[in-house]
Amino acid sequence: MTMNQPHIEHIPRAVAASLHEHWVLFLIEGIVLVVLGLIAIVIPPIATLAVEILFGWLFLISGIVWLITTFWMRHAPGFWWSLLSAALATAAGIVLLARPLSGVLTLTLILIVFFVIEGIASIMYALEHKRELSGRWGWMLASGIVDLIVAAIILAGLPGTAAWAIGLLVGINMVFGGSALIAMALHAREIDPRTMAPAS
Predict the structure, then answer these.
(1) Could you read off the pLDDT of 146-186 as tens digits, one per residue?
(2) Which pLDDT score is estimated for 189?
(3) pLDDT grade, residue 11 (50/70/90)?
(4) What is the pTM of this model?
(5) Given pLDDT bands bounded at 50, 70 and 90, which one contains residue 199?
(6) How far is CA 60 from CA 63, 79, 84, 108, in A?
(7) pLDDT digits (tens, 9 = 90+) for 19-72
(8) CA 181/CA 76 separation, integer angstroms
(9) Side-chain half-sphere of 159: how many Cα atoms within 13 Å?
(10) How far is CA 105 from CA 95, 96, 102, in A?
(11) How far apart are CA 43 and CA 159, in angstroms?
(12) Directed axis angle between helix 79-98 and helix 44-72, to 10°?
């Protein structure tokens, strides 16, 4: 146990060095997220439609690939169950692409789960890396809290607001997430990982 202690003590310095080295990528990603989020907030029905179409293509492509691999391995056990699953994924993709708003309620429920998981993950990341993120860790914490609030708002608005709420709330999430990344990138640019003492 004591042999691993020196390595563990250098983890904060390694994290800081990685953040400092890649701060430009975090900044670009944050700016792109903020811009896309603002567009989604201004035109929420378009963003909702875009999310539906994206999921439609994901289901369709994964279903087709799944069908190909199922037929390729048709002598493997569970062929018919695999074929049924692949066919359902393909059919779901076709339905979502043909009538994108028909699956909005199901997608909304999936989105609620996503926001809850992302919110908890962001909060845990912020709390675990308070030292490396210094004064900016609060932005990441706020982003996680906003994710949980967004999930609650979507749930409260079902089913009537689902058609426009997805686009609006995804936009809000992207703006806050992008702002957190921008703040983290600007802070990472200023820190010098070589001067950081390992955790005692």
Answers:
(1) 889 988 887 887 777 676 777 787 788 789 888 888 888 88
(2) 78
(3) low
(4) 0.53
(5) very low
(6) 5, 20, 14, 19
(7) 667 778 878 888 998 998 898 888 887 777 777 788 788 888 888 887 888 778
(8) 46
(9) 7
(10) 14, 12, 8
(11) 20
(12) 150
> Maximum CA pair distance of the chain?
61
Checking 115-121 for CB contacts under 8 A at 24+ apart, the result is: 115/147, 115/148, 115/150, 115/151, 115/154, 115/169, 115/173, 116/147, 116/148, 116/151, 118/144, 118/147, 118/173, 119/144, 119/145, 119/146, 119/147, 119/148, 119/150, 119/151, 120/144, 120/148
Determine the Cα–Cα distance for residues 195 and 200; give it in Å rounded to an integer.
Answer: 15
Here the tokens at position 66 are: 């799944």
Cβ-defined contacts of 47-50 (< 8 Å, 24+):
47/166, 47/167, 47/168, 47/170, 47/171, 48/101, 48/104, 48/163, 48/164, 48/165, 48/166, 48/167, 49/100, 49/101, 49/167, 50/167
Task: Report the alpha-carbon distance of residue 64 to residue 5 in Å, rounded.
Answer: 49
Tokens of 129: 């890396």
Cα angle: 96, vertex 99, 104; to 5 degrees = 65
Look-up: residue for tokens 């070589």? Answer: 194
